[in-house]
Structures are given as C-alpha cells and as structure tokens.
C-alpha cells in the first residue's frame, strides 16, 4: 500500500511538470490524508530529493538524487508499461537471476529489476561483467511478447537500438553497435546486452533482457586489462551522467520500439539497427566455435543473423561469434 501511494505521488509530480502541487491536491489525487502526504514528502527528502515548499502554493520537486531506486526512476517516467513496476536492490549477485525468479512467479510485463551493484554480473558466453557500485546501470527487464521462441534474438537488437537512442538523447554522444550485443564509444565497450528466454516449444513465456552500462566510472575504476577495451559515458562525455534519466530514456525508447515491432514487425528495427552498426560494409573476422571466417559484413537477416561475404563470394550466416574489425 505504501508503495502504491508513493507511486501515485510521484506520478502526480511527474504530470505537474515542475509546477506546485498543494498538500490537499496531492491528498485528493492519491486518496489519502494530508498528513500521509506530508509523511511521504519527508521520506522523499530523506532519500535525497530536494523539495520546495511554499505556503498556499504547495510542493514541487526541484532536484533528485543520482540513485536508481524505485522513486528516482518513477519520477518523470513517461511509459505506460515498461518500468511501471521497479524492483530495486542496493547490491545483488545478478539482476538476471532475480528477474528470472520474478518472471517464473508471474511478474507482469515491464517489471524492471535494477541494482546499484552487481557482484556476479555476466555477459554473453558467461563472461564476467565488471559492475562497480554506484557508477553504472545494471538492470533486467521482463517482456512477455506473444511470439514463438525463434523471434527472441530480435529483442537483443531492439534493446541495442533503444540504448543507443537513449545515450544520444541523454549524453549527446554517438555510440555504435557491434554485432550482436555490444555498444561502443570511441571503439571501446560501454554497454553489454544479454537476452535470455523462458519458453515452451511454441511460445515465449518471458524474455529477460539484461543491460549493463558503464555510466560514471572513471578510468581508475576499470582493471588494467579492461582499460584498453572498456570505457564509460562519463569518460567520453567529460562529465557525470544522470543514471535515472538514462534508465527512463531507455525504457521510453524501448517501449516505443516494442510497440513498433508488435505493429509492423522487425523490419523497421532492423533498418535502425543497421544504421547504428559499426561493422556493416566493413571487413571483419568472425571467430565461431567451428572456425574463423573473414569477409565483408553485409548486414543482418530478418532473424538478426549476421551475413558475411568471404573473398570467394560465399555468404556465411553467423549465429554466434566474436567479431573483430579488420580494416
């Protein structure tokens, strides 16, 4: 009940767009007493929200803390479904593991699991993902599209487009995508995306979309062996980035793309993905479990499979590989 009241108060402040709301107006909107509203206002202040209070005018929020807990994400969020439920933990082993359990227990579509720190973060092929405390975005999102399982890989590409668009909006940086799930700035990795599935033979029960973003790390946050290949938004921007604003932008862009996908299919997403891809038209080396393929990256299929044309003119379809740019 307390969580629902807090969400209604934050929704009211969001819709007020910086205008004052009286205690009585908030009480009427939320459906509680003015005393209860005041208690919630004080709790927000304790969390680091800066609220201005003026007699006969009411309250307005003038600044928010750089946290990624439920209140910071809900304030200003303009989605209808994605992020409407936020499960926040200060420190977790893996947001993916929590999201899997929530999904199995019937969590609604759009449920977001987010943490300030991950101690067992992982990427594709079970690789470790360095997730330092208070500096990044470590999140998992539950989707429940009524689709067959073979469509699931497309959602990794959809998520990559949403993250690129969010970074452009919030940071005014120009990231690029390296197939299948890496987002780069200045040639260094800034984001990884891991899509996992709960499914039956003919239908998806849930897609668990894990997104890890290096946001406000300094160079010294990265181990020596990662400094050559990894970066953060703050390093490239030269200034700290609001993590809640970035999460909100990701959710809003993803919801827009998800709606486009459900209405028009994968083609619009495919065209957007290819427009951001660093490898399309370039010579690359793909290291697969069966060997190495060198050639020109032509683009992706409707299923999100990478196409490479080798020197002999043979076109290879790459389902899983490590990609290196050769030119």
TrEMBL record:
Residues 23-42 bind DNA. One of its GO terms (molecular function) is biotin--[biotin carboxyl-carrier protein] ligase activity. Biotin binds at residues 118, 122-124, 189. The keyword Transcription applies. PROSITE patterns: BPL_LPL_CATALYTIC. SUPFAM superfamilies: C-terminal domain of transcriptional repressors (SSF50037), Class II aaRS and biotin synthetases (SSF55681), Winged helix' DNA-binding domain (SSF46785). Residues 75-262 form the BPL/LPL catalytic domain. Keywords: ATP-binding, Biotin, DNA-binding, Ligase, Nucleotide-binding, Repressor, Transcription, Transcription regulation. It catalyses: biotin + L-lysyl-[protein] + ATP = N(6)-biotinyl-L-lysyl-[protein] + AMP + diphosphate + H(+). Its EC number is 6.3.4.15. It is an enzyme of class 6 (ligase). The keyword Glycosyltransferase does not apply. InterPro entries: aa-tRNA-synth_II/BPL/LPL, Bifunct_BirA, Biotin_CoA_COase_ligase, BPL_C, BPL_LPL_catalytic, HTH_11, Transcriptional_repressor_C, WH-like_DNA-bd_sf. Acts both as a biotin--[acetyl-CoA-carboxylase] ligase and a repressor. Belongs to the biotin--protein ligase family. This is Bifunctional ligase/repressor BirA. It comes from Bacillus seohaeanensis.
């Amino acid at each position: 009940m307390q969580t629902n009241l807090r969400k209604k108060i934050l929704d009211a402040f969001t819709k007020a767009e910086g205008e004052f709301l009286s205690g009585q107006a908030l009480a009427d909107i939320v459906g509680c007493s003015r005393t209860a509203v005041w208690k919630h206002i004080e709790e927000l202040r304790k969390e680091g929200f800066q609220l201005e209070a003026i007699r006969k005018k009411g309250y307005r929020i003038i600044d928010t803390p750089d946290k990624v807990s439920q209140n910071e994400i809900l304030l200003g969020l303009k989605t209808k479904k994605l992020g409407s439920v936020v499960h926040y933990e200060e420190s977790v082993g893996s947001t993916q593991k929590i999201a899997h359990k929530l999904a199995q227990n019937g969590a609604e579509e759009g449920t977001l699991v987010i943490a300030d720190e991950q101690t067992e973060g992982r990427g594709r092929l079970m690789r470790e993902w360095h997730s330092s405390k208070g500096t990044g975005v470590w999140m998992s999102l539950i989707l429940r599209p009524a689709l067959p399982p073979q469509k699931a890989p497309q959602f990794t590409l959809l998520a990559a487009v949403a993250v690129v668009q969010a970074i452009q909006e919030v940071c005014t940086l120009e990231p690029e995508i390296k197939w299948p799930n890496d987002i780069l700035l200045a040639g260094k990795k800034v984001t990884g995306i891991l899509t996992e599935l709960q499914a039956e033979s003919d239908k998806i029960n849930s897609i668990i979309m894990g997104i890890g973003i290096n946001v406000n790390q300094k160079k010294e946050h990265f181990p020596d062996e990662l400094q050559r290949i990894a970066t953060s938004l703050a390093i490239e921007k030269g200034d700290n980035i609001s993590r809640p604003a970035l999460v909100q932008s990701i959710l809003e862009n993803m919801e827009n793309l998800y709606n486009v996908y459900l209405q028009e299919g994968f083609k619009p997403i495919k065209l957007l993905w290819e427009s951001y891809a660093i490898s399309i038209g370039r010579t690359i080396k793909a290291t697969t479990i069966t060997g190495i393929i060198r050639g020109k990256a032509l683009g992706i299929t409707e299923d999100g499979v990478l196409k490479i044309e080798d020197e002999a003119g043979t076109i290879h379809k790459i389902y899983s590989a490590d990609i290196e740019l050769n030119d």
